[in-house]
Amino acid sequence: MSDTIAAMSWVVSNGDLPGVVSMSLGGGYSAEENEYVTDLYDAGFVVVVAAGNDNDDACNYSPASAADAITVGSSTINDEASYFSNYGTCNDIYAPGSNIYSVTTGGGYEEMSGTSMACPHVSGVA
Fold this sequence. Notes:
By secondary structure, this protein is an alpha/beta fold. 28% of the residues lie in helices and 25% in strands. The protein has 3 helices and 8 strands. The chain has helices at 3-14, 31-42, 115-125; strands at 20-23, 27-28, 46-50, 61-62, 70-75, 93-96, 100-103, 109-112. Strand 7 and strand 8 (109-112) form a beta hairpin. It starts with a helix and ends with a helix.
């Protein structure tokens, strides 16, 4: 069992509701991983996931392809899709993800880009 699947399983069994599960991670398509997203959803959690940064169809990746997740692509300050953002029918929404100020290790700040920057925007609204 992958660490991601183990974590989702733990949340289903131990998480408090209402709750939002925000996952800024991804990998190749996995039906098993997508089924665990459905388990989270069925348990009552809102699941928000990053679309990925491969400039490719998000349906080729998990958990971005999970039908019961809100899949978030990255947009620019001009409200356009970021050049790196995954796209397609599995994307549900875009949020700011280009040149976002973020905390770094050691307490500093720097601009970062990615759907991992966009996903938390939507998680916060959910």
